Every structure is written in structure tokens, then in C-alpha cells.
Amino acid sequence: MSIKPWEIISRKWDDGYRIFRLRTDRALSPRTGHDHNFYVLETSDWVNVIPLTDENEVVLVRQYRHGTGEITLEIPGGLVEGDASPENAAWRELREETGCSGRDLVNLGSVHPNPAIQNNRCHSFLARGVFPAGGLNQDPKEDIEVIVRPLSEIPLLILNGTITHSLVLAAFYRLFMEHGEVCPGGMQNFS
Q1: For all residues of the chain together, what is the average pLDDT?
Q2: Which of 167, 153, 132 is nearest to 58 (CA)?
Q3: pLDDT for 62-77, tens place per residue?
């Protein structure tokens, strides 16, 4: 039997929050003929940026995450706001969270963060030739520490559980696997 789309019977939204709103879909199963409620977090697309210096070092950010109650090691990232393109959002997040800019931006692709309950995509980019360009511009709900590590250390930071954010892992996967990089030991220079 082939899988078929479910017919949406009704759709309603809550009032929404700053970064998402909850949508409730009532949908009819094409297999059973029964209808069920499904809950979807509608949100803007997101971006992640792997900032890489000419010395092949990655500019990382450490910050406290309320969802897990832990401090995480990540790459800069955030919402694609308004009519901004993912590329413009990537440059903005890089500047705000690290105080850096870069020479150019390479699109590494995008993923669905959780297609079971979310409608958005997360776009990953590689910023090459990254350099300090001023101070951080954190919003009032952020406390960020900037850390620089060699690109060659990233696979170990993933394997030992230091980097655990799934969207950060997806960005590094795209970088290492889909752009000819093998790890560890086979790193090529991106500069």
C-alpha cells in the first residue's frame, strides 16, 4: 500500500509566541478513515553558521539553554526574521553572536528540524575567511561566550558529547561528508 497525504478537516491557531505559534490540525487518515488532532509548531526558518578562519579554526559559541538546563557548545544561529533571506540572516547571526564577519558564505543545505511537529527548515552555511569585526551584539535573553577551536578538533568534540545540538551536528555533517571532508585526519583546507 502506498502512503497518501492526510486530508485536513480543520485548522486552528493559538495566539502565538515570539518565535512560534501552535497550530492544531484535524486530519483524516486515508488508511483508516478516522480523524485525529495533530499539533504543529509554526515558526520561521532558522540558520546555522560554521565560522571558519583562514587558519582553519572554527568560531564557536557557548550559551545556557533553558530547554535542557545546560550550557552548550554550538555554532552561531537563529531565526530568519521577516523578509530576510537565509544568507542575510546567517551574516546577521554571525556578527551578533561572535562579533565576526567573513569573506564569503557557502550554502551547505538545509534540514527539517523535526517534521513530525514543526513546519520550518534550518539552513546551514559555512562562512570562510572569518575575522573579528567588532563586539558581540547579544539580545537581552542571551549570554554568549565565544570560543575558537581548530576544525580538526570538531569530530572529537562531537564524538565525546561536547557538541550535542542536533542542528549543529547536521551542519558539520554537511561540511564533512557532503563537501569532501573526511574526519578525523583527512581535513582539507577550506581557505
Answers
A1: 91
A2: 153
A3: 999 999 999 999 999 9
Give the single-character DSSP code of 168: H
- Domain range summary for the chain, segments of one domain joined by +: 7-42, 46-178
Whether residue 146 contacts residue 136, with contact meaning beta carbons closer than 8 Å, is answered with yes
Task: Supply the pTM of this predicted model.
Answer: 0.88
Contacts of 161 (CB under 8 A, 6+ apart): none
Angle at 53 between CA 49 and CA 138, to 5 degrees: 50
Q: Which of 83, 61, 58 is nearest to 73 (CA)?
A: 61
Rounded to whole angstroms, the Cα distance separating 22 from 48 reads: 23
CATH of domain 46-178: 3.90.79.10
DSSP of 89-116: HHHHHHHHHHSEE-SEEEEEEEE-S-TT
